[in-house]
Amino acid sequence: MKYGYFDDRNREYVIERPDVPVSWTNYIGVKDLCAVLSHNAGGYSFYKSAEHGRITRFRQNGIPLDRPGHYIYVRDDDTGEYWTISWQPTGTDLSIAKYDCRHGLSYSKFSCDYQGIQASQLIFIPIDDDVELWDVMIRNATRKQRHLSIFSYVEFSFHHIEIDNQNLQMSLYAGGSSYSDAIIEYDFFYEPWTFHYMTASFIPDSYDSMRDSFIGTYHTESDPEAVSKGSCFNSSELGGNHCGALHKKITLLPNQETRLVFMLGVGDRKTAKNIRKKYSNFTNVDNAFLGLREYWMAKLDKFQCKTPHDGLNSMVNTWTLYQAETCVVWSRFASFIEVGGRTGLGYRDTSQDIMAVPHTNPEKVKQRMLELFNGQVQQGYGLHLFDPEVFNPPEAKLPGVRLPTVVPTPRPADIIHGLQDTCSDDALWIVASVCEYVKETGDLAFFDHVIPFADGDQGTVYEHLKRSLDFSAEQVGKTGICLGLRADWNDCLNLGGGESAMVSFLHHWALVNFIEAASFLGRDVDVQKYTAMADKVRRSCEENLWDGAWYLRGFTRNGLKIGSHENQEGKIFLESNSLAVLSEAASLEHSQKCMDSVDKYLYSEFGIHLLWPSFSKPDDDIGYVTRVYKGIKENGAIFTHPNPWAIVAECKLGRGERAMKFFNSTLPYNQNDLIEIRQSEPYSYCQFVMGRDHTAYGRARHPWLTGSAGWAYHAVTHWILGIRPGYAGLIIDPCIPADWKEFEINRQWRGAAYHIVVKNPNGVQKGIKDIRLNSKSIKGSIPLQQAGTTNEVIVEMGH
Ligand code: NOJ
Description:
Layout: E1 4-7, E2 12-15, E3 25-28, E4 33-38, E5 43-47, E6 71-76, E7 82-84, E8 98-104, E9 107-114, E10 117-124, E11 131-140, E12 146-153, H1 161-165, H2 168-171, E13 175-180, E14 183-188, E15 195-200, E16 206-210, H3 211-215, H4 225-229, E17 242-252, E18 257-266, H5 269-280, H6 282-300, E19 303-306, H7 310-330, E20 345-346, H8 347-353, H9 362-374, E21 385-386, H10 412-415, H11 429-441, E22 450-452, E23 458-460, H12 461-474, E24 483-485, E25 496-500, H13 501-521, H14 524-545, E26 554-555, E27 561-562, E28 572-573, H15 574-582, H16 588-602, E29 603-604, E30 607-608, E31 611-612, E32 638-639, H17 643-652, H18 656-666, H19 675-678, E33 686-689, E34 700-703, H20 708-720, E35 723-725, E36 729-732, E37 742-749, E38 752-759, E39 768-773, E40 776-778, E41 782-783, E42 790-797
Parallel strand pairs: 38-42
Antiparallel strand pairs: 1-2, 2-8, 3-4, 4-5, 6-7, 6-12, 8-9, 9-10, 10-11, 11-18, 12-17, 13-14, 14-15, 15-18, 16-17, 19-37, 20-21, 22-23, 24-25, 25-26, 26-27, 28-31, 29-30, 32-33, 33-34, 35-36, 36-41, 37-38, 39-40, 39-42
Helix pairs in contact: 7-20, 9-11, 11-13, 12-13, 13-14, 13-15, 15-16, 15-17, 17-18, 17-20
């Protein structure tokens, strides 16, 4: 069953049936101001942090789904009937009202055709202003004159999520609202620098800034009293719950249309006044929207492909990059799943996310790397989850103001955890990301950039990387395999003094990346030292981890094997095997064999399971994973994030058919007409899909903020399509299904453009016979061309 389609030309996903099983969300805003909105305009907005910069309220995990939201009501003043431009909250009968939602790149457009009134609400945030614009068009498609009332509605939130949810005896009296000159100003008496506002391009006929007046006692957003009555109550007050409701009466002749712009912003009345002036001129609205389009097109233009696979094209050219960028900006902490409980960066998550986007967002990637290095301690491990602002606090706005509800100010010393809370993998992921960034940008000087450690002293980026590698070399168990510590990539595998095969393979991968960089920089002493370290890791892995047909996942602190054919449950795991191959630590024979086992035991039509069989008996030596229901999340679900590791592994083995089979199984696009099973949005990778051991096998959960997006993007662009920057040239090394005859890439790299046509006349899966750069045959990678040039590259695959 399907609910919508991919509109590739406009780079939008169009939801034609709004009664989808779960909320299908989008991220509006590319800088500090953000709204996470569903296909029904439900959701919330915040400034900088979903935890302490809340603007609008959201009742998470509630019923009905995704309320409240950013709504426009349309009322027929002749009949008293009313509806919303998004299907919810009025939920107008879909057999008589036509609704659709277009989720685009940092905007969503809701449309409704009902009672002869065609209405649309486009929501977006201009790149350079902290204001959410609702560009509303109302058209009378009937032959008679119509009298309508239009109302906006948002429910304001207290600024800090904790204050919004707790200690209401204090918070309910700490914010106030006032109205004048078409502006509702929402102010925080306790936080005198914080103001939000709602204004519009017109002079309202009535307004409400008190939620309970607009909605009415025992009414909801579905039937607000103000809208039923046809007019707001002109309410405002100091204290209470606040909202942004502005009402305008309009009269439309047959075929006449009108445009109204609503503005929900950050700042006080004075700011609102300026913004109102600016965006009451609709040319500025149009230009701002154009600016946003151009912002995204400039990013997408860095890498575009045309292959025989429509789904791959749609996802790579638009959606997966968009998702990967979103993860880099918000880490994991602003969604319908994480609704403001945390602020900052997950060390391992952000370290991996940034690897996907150095070509489209080098500034943000650099900023994130610096923040992460600042969160690394001298011993080499990373702080698992931290807010970079703790190390670089913004200037206090008004020193001396103290909240009555105590929210302690974090200090660096409070967040520097010891080894008992350290994850064994965290600081290893950043090695490859730094290398990818330098290969993309050519910014070699970055290796020598000096950054403080979290617990004092400082070092160059290069030194920080060495500390990560040395830490893992020291933290090993009896067999030489890395200790598992608090957890490794798998949050729920808590091996402590036990050993993690996955981390040893990851260590090897980080070493391979580092050695390549050190060789390019001519730092020979380090090349020798770390090559010896890599040899040692490889030997330990081969000597201790091979299980006959695949690699183990590790050992418990009591030396029992995990991920062995000898086990009853958790016999084979995806992470250790895919990383064994990806990291190039495994021998060719073992690589092929272990990936064959992954295919045989873990693969399914919806992706590769994380382990098999799922655990049914709690075993705290293995960890929390054994206390998760079978087939869910880390206990035997199809955990999407490590699936691309298997794709890269297969590409390294030259098995394009298998790589494509794996890619196809998790590709959300491929499940567009299986929504009765998938449920979640088909334009976003989800964190996991219920596994075979669960009754809801195939159901996807936790969209958007997951490492799956960045890794999927990396796997396709760098390994299937095989276009990846090196330090000195652009490497071309595709690994594709044999029946692909040809594909094309447009890639921008360090200021020059490359139009690459890859032909496969011999039907191979991997191998290059000939490369022509601007008609001249070349060997190896494509040398860097002059900035500003466009270069034609013809590649012939073959043996
Ligand atoms: C989600 C977490 O954000 C990520 O850090 C972790 O690697 C996966 N879960 C697997 O446990």
